[in-house]
Target: O-acyltransferase
Amino acid sequence: MGDRGGAGGSRRRRTGSRPSSQSGGGPAAAEEEVRAAAPGATGRPPTRTRAAAPTCHRLQDSLFSSDSGFNNYRGILNWCVVMLILSNARLFLENLIKYGILVDPIQVVSLFLKDPYSWPALCLVIGELGAKEALGTVLPPSQGALTEQAGLLLHVLNLATILCFPAAVALLLESITPVGSVLALMVYTILFLKLFSYRDVNLWCRERRARAKPGLTAPRLPVAPAGKKANGGTAQRMVSYPDNLTYRDLYYFLFAPTLCYELNFPRSPRIRKRFLLRRLLEMLFLTQLQVGLIQQWMVPTIQNSMKPFKDMDYSRIIERLLKLAVPNHLIWLIFFYWFFHSCMNAVAELMQFGDREFYRDWWNSESVTYFWQNWNIPVHKWCLRHFYKPMLRRGSSKWVARTGVFFASAFFHEYLVSIPLHMFRLWAFTGMMAQIPLAWIVSRFFQGNYGNAAVWLTLIIGQPVAVLMYVHDYYVLHYEAPVVGA
Ligand SMILES: CC(C)(COP(=O)(O)OP(=O)(O)OC[C@H]1O[C@@H](n2cnc3c(N)ncnc32)[C@H](O)[C@@H]1OP(=O)(O)O)[C@@H](O)C(=O)NCCC(=O)NCCS
Model:
């Protein structure tokens, strides 16, 4: 009893020494008595006093006051999850009652093929494997009989062809579908970025060799430490320039889940079969889930958005936009996990590629800059290594270099959308370029949790705006034009 009183007294001292309005008489006076008996007050051990009654009050803040120092909101987080599941279950039911089951796995095939005997997108992707001419453009003059300038010219021609050829096929060929085009153009864009990196790195090696003292042979590189792994991986011999200029090395890089070339990639010692199987199952399941959600949830919402757009009914447009934001965001999150975790890890595991940092904790972004530094690591690394830092080294300011990177990124985003849809509206381009002022606004006006909420809001709302813009324009162009003409 006396002990409890003593503990209460010491707690009171910790929370502050505000005068208690309760003191004066009755139970409070008894409490004072107990306080006086506390070890801190007298220096003696607390003594049991007859007058002391059980205390049930002490000086303390309510939990929601910031002064209370309370921060365990685990239950509230669980409540959010339960509410989220409940409200989405209602949406799910409403959707089923309204539209019936729209998921149709067979219909997915028609997204890739118009004509079962014509597979242009696949032919384009297979054609991409003939990228071996890149090797000729990086061979040192002694081996390839090419001067540095001639090599550069061939390299530029090669890269221009890689971008223009599939674009021309996608624009001119009737039998290619928009989805097939997107996939083919994506593969070619990846090839473009990889070959850009391949030549840069080999050029840096040549320059370093030229700077080294003539007559000095390259030092023998050590063997990578890998022998002592539990799974018994063999040691990996390190390669130095120009021994890396082989088809085997080039094709390993082309298939590896990275855009930045290195002569000696970190390698994992063995293929972990269970890990690989888990990633493959995730890939299968999440592909089905994404397709199902698009067919059942997104397509009807988009279709229902066309009329408000046509009537320019702004309140209904905003309502549609907010309705689309939920499935769009959910699908984007699933896509993130599917691509950056399942697919990239599956490929890396198969190729024993050791560096698995494909994403960082972008979900904690408190600024737009942090988001772009952490969400797509292969692209960010490429931008830094082959665009941003070279520009800074040539004397550009950070602002110019950053704008240059976002301009290039905006170009590729537009390239991947406009050409497959056969319409040039610059929504994707504008969306990427808008990241620069957006980054400034968010960092200027929002910090901490508010910054994090602002980043989430731009992700949740920004994407469906772009989706609706493209769908609306596509709809008007392909389904309304003849009616208007008639
Ligand atoms: C533009 C972009 C590259 C800027 O990156 P950032 O990390 O904000 O740039 P910073 O100014 O912080 O500098 C980054 C690096 O440059 C280095 N650096 C800065 N000034 C430098 C200078 N004058 N000279 C050389 N290096 C310099 C920094 O040390 C840092 O190096 P580190 O990464 O090894 O630590 C980044 O925002 C980006 O990748 N944007 C595009 C993203 C994109 O389009 N993704 C598509 C996804 S679908």
